[in-house]
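The passage that follows is intended for readers who have already worked through the single-chain material. We present the inputs for a multi-component assembly, then the predicted structure in tokenized form, and finally a short commentary. You are encouraged to pause after the input and sketch how you expect the pieces to fit together before reading on.
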Amino acid sequence: MEWYPLLNSLRIAAASCVIVFFLGIFCAYYAARLPRGVKGALDVILTLPMVLPPTVCGYFLLMIFGVKRPLGIFLAKFGVQFVMTWYGGVLAASVVAFPLMYRTARGAFENFDETLSQAGQTLGLSNPYIFWRVRMPACRQGILAGAVLTFARALGEYGATSMLIGYTPGRTATISTTVYQLWRTNDEVGALRWVLVNLAISTAVLLAVNLLEDRQKAVRR
Amino acid sequence: MSLFVDIEKRLGEFCLTAHVETQGGTLGLLGASGCGKSLTLKCIAGIERPDRGKIVLDGVPLFDSGKEIDLPPQKRRVGYLFQNYALFPNMTVKQNILCGMRRERDRNRREEELKRVLRLCRLEEVERLRPRQLSGGQQQRTALARILVSQPRLLLLDEPFSALDSHLRDKLQLELRNLLEQFGRDTILVTHSRDEAYHMCSYLAVMDQGRLSGEKETKALFADPGSVCACLLTGCKNIAPARKTGAYEVEVPDWGIKLQTAQAVGEHIRAVGIRAHQFHAGTEQNCFPVEYRGEMEEPFEWIVEFRYRGQSSAASPLWWRIPKDRRPVPFPAELGAAPEDILLLYA
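Having made your guess, compare it with the prediction:
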């Protein structure tokens, strides 16, 4: 069995998880302090990728980063091409998984007791210190849960990925695109193998989420 | 030590105007809930930004809308004890207190100061525990210790006892007052409880619907509240509109009586107040026939509801408080209050 799709899926999921983790927290932190009207509009835009069919996200990505589009031509000058490359997969997975991180992190920030941050300020603590040592630990459970969900979603991404990077064995193949490809070519046993691999990873991830939630409840008690 | 505050802030319909100057010691801001007391403290600490005005602490301007000065809370050196204490839940007592000392670079001095304050606030045995494992009193002392080590020039206490059980409250008031005395900094305490204000504060300012008036000595305010709002907040139960009928006489239409006063009555008198424990049988003046309506038993006192004979039916009954050992049998047919116990209220 050729293990490339597993490695590729894992690196795409891991890379987009890291990117989305910081981007999601950043957006959530600033969105949580915006006035209501602006927040609502921003929310719609930032959450759209979650409710749109992933193929539609893939369509938009192609419209923006396609090799004949201005941005695609511009990036090609620096040797960066998102179409048909594995890091294009990172872009596709990041876009689709971003809302999960953004929304869970924002929920966690909105439940944060602002008096903790205000107390820190009156004690003379710097704002970055308050953010990393007070706000983040207090919101840790929610943010970790968001990160795990992001990883799981990025791992299972199919629609936008197949639109943007297609399926090239040994180059852009991921678990989900491989399953489809093997099924299409009547290799039922091969498809089943990858289905089982996927099932194992997803189960592990969901167990991790449950464990986090249990610990959160224990803390509240 | 001096604080000068003269600020305005609008929040939707609500408008806050506060003018206070501290004269040393503990100043109390007394007001009903939602009247803007906490907002005033937050403006002083720099957590909220006033629309206009000036805040000067020890000659240093913290905020001045005219000169575009607005120091961040980190630079104001104003300690703020929050209602819920705002202890960092992910840190131990010791780590919480060390948060107040991040300005101090010298490690030995930090350790020394930590030991001193742990002893002062009696927290030595719980220094390794997290806030949720502490009792209410320990939480309060931890929050206070964390503030004291940050060496604030001014201390703000926002309803410091509201999160505590009532039996703990009196004990902790005494304890907090002793700690504050040792600490020796100016303090502003926000409260809606007249007992707390009376126990803790040398001066009081009354806040009424966003308006903070000038401060008065605590005992003077209780003796002569001057306004209906202050009178209510100092716990007076019997207040009714009044108008001047003589140099030392007012008419109270709701009660259907005329009262003789010890103080000269001003032209703009609005109402009078009589404290519930200041009624007596057979006083020389202000004695009128009454009808009794009901009574309520308290642990050490009786509260008796009564109406004057000529009282208008729309006016609510008055309260008379009697210590249990002095309850007359039968109740007197007439009740009166001494002229010096009639509180004249102008606003």
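Commentary: Chain A touches chain B at residues 113, 115-116, 118-126, 129, 133-134, 137-138, 140 (CB under 8 Å). Chain A has one domain: 4-220. How closely did your sketch match?
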